[in-house]
Amino acid sequence: MMSLQPLETKAQAFTADPITDAEAGAMLRAVVNLFAKWQITDEEAATLLDLPVRTYRRWKAGQPGRMDRDTKARLSNIIGIHKALRLIFVDPARVYAWVKAPNAAFGQPALQVMLGGELTDLMRVRRYLDAERGAW
After folding, report:
1. Which stretches does DSSP call E strand in 32-124?
2. Measured torsion, CA atoms of residues 117, 121, 123, 127, in degrees rounded to the nearest 10
3. pTM greater than 0.90 (yes/no)
4. I need a surface site. Which of 22, 72, 87, 98 has the fewest CB within 10 A?
């Protein structure tokens, strides 16, 4: 006969592992493809990633340089925005059009919010989408 064993129910401290360079490289490739689907300019993409346009174009051409913690966080938030949109909308056309569509919650398209250039601007859009899909 099996006996029941007690389970640890106390919350454990969580510390996320840092994003590796290999993971960041994969995210960058995905984000470059996503930016093409969003139909944004290289200048807009560079603003979203807080990079000089020349650096973004070099990275886009497949020659990424070293990514700092901020860049990795930006990539992660952009991927999170895309994931939330994929969960909210069934139609891929709506997924990719949403960032440029008028948005009453922001009083402007979400892309305009993100183009504020701060990491917190990306986080604001991501939090909004996560709340809309019921993740928070």
Report:
1. none
2. -160
3. no
4. 22
Judged against a pLDDT cut of 70, whether residue 17 lies above it is answered with yes
Residue written as tokens 């990424």?
64
- The encoded tokens of residue 48 equal 């979203």
Q: Could you tell me the residue ranges of all domains in the chain?
A: 21-132
Contacting residues for 27 by C-beta, under 8 A, at least 6 apart: 19, 72, 75, 76, 79
Q: Which residue has the higher pLDDT, 3 or 79?
A: 79
Assigned token pair, 2: 């099996």
Helices 42-49 and 53-60: crossing angle, nearest 10°?
Answer: 100
Q: What tokens were used for 107?
A: 């009083």
DSSP annotation of 97: H
Per-residue buried b or exposed e for 73-112, using 16+ beta carbons within 10 Å of the residue's own CB: ebbbbbbbbbebbeeeeeeeeebbbbbeeebeeeeebbbe
Is residue 129 classed as helix, strand or coil in its secondary structure?
helix
